[in-house]
Amino acid sequence: MTANRKRLAVLGGILLVLAGAGVAFAAYLSTGTGTGATASSVAVNSTITPNTPGAQLYPGSTSTYTVTINNPNPYPVKVTSISASTSDKTTGNCPAGTVTSPAVTNPTGTIAANGTGSYSLTATMIANPDNSCQGQSFTMPLTAQLASAAG
């Protein structure tokens, strides 16, 4: 036998074994059925904290102040709105509503997972505040709406 014939015979034998194994393998294929399971997380509410107070207000004036919104969730979020607000009554008997802040819709930026974002808001003092409002600090209750920005 020549070298080429030996090679062909060996190659043919290997192909024959592989073909037989393929047929044997194919004869034992099957399918399976069942279920998989996973669960979704639960959104954790953010918090809003004062960041930088604006310039001091006087009757009829407007000032910009900043707040920090945290994202305690394991995914990024976008702030879709920040509520309008009116000031609470102060300890010095300055009436509630002396300072107002308009709503903010679709502020820019995304807050990273477990991160924080800073947002600028506007505050305006009414034109005729009570005299007891001098030298007071004003608390502005706020609510932010957040939506998942994943993907």
TrEMBL record:
The keyword Signal applies. Residues 1-26 form the signal peptide. It comes from the Bacteria. Keywords: Signal. This is DUF11 domain-containing protein. It comes from Actinomycetospora termitidis. The lineage of its organism: Bacteria, Bacillati, Actinomycetota, Actinomycetes, Pseudonocardiales.
